[in-house]
Amino acid sequence: MTRTLILTRHAKSSWDTPALSDHDRPLNKRGRNSAAAIGEWLRDNNWLPDEVLSSSSTRTRETWDRIGLSASNVNFTSDLYLSEPEDMLACLAAASGETVLMLGHNPGIAEFASLIVQKAPPHPRFLDYPTCATSIIQFDIQDWSRVRWGSGKVLGFAIPRELLEHKRRG
User: What angle do CA 147, 136, 42 make, to 5 degrees?
Assistant: First the structure.
């Protein structure tokens, strides 16, 4: 039995309203387009979550909305807001879905991605995990409580800028 993690960093956020707290910043236009591109990529590859674990921030909520998918269980939690890799692992260990989309922030998500996989993909941006970067990581486990560092196999990695450039070129 396997479990699949869709690991996504929030899309590009706006800094246009300095009075907003960091937690409350929305996406900018580029971010909205990027999230939609990631959603299309996920649909095209049939990587569809049945559970979502997301930071409670406005930009992660909006990223999930703009991705345009649905899941039977969606949980927005402050436990994933600017969280450390260990906190992310604990949150994932409590998941129940077969395919879980986890949505969070840097620098934690980049570090989490590098620690959770057996081998990083050859993409030059994997280790810095730019906005809306998304990995598909498969684990040979029956239950998320068994997930361990260095145990995931990367099935795919995408950044929106490349998806959108490829789409423009046709």
Answer: 140
pLDDT at 166: 87
Euclidean distance between CA atoms 33 and 43, whole angstroms: 15
Residue 107 to residue 110: CA distance in whole angstroms = 6
Return d(Cα 18, Cα 24) in angstroms, integer. 11
Phi, psi at residue 95, to the nearest 5°? -70, 160
Average pLDDT of the residues of the chain: 96
pTM of the model: 0.96
Burial readout 4-40 (b: 16 or more C-beta within 10 A, e: otherwise): bbbbbbbbbbbeeeeeeeeeebbbbebbbbbbbbbbb
CA 67 to mean position of chain CA atoms: 11
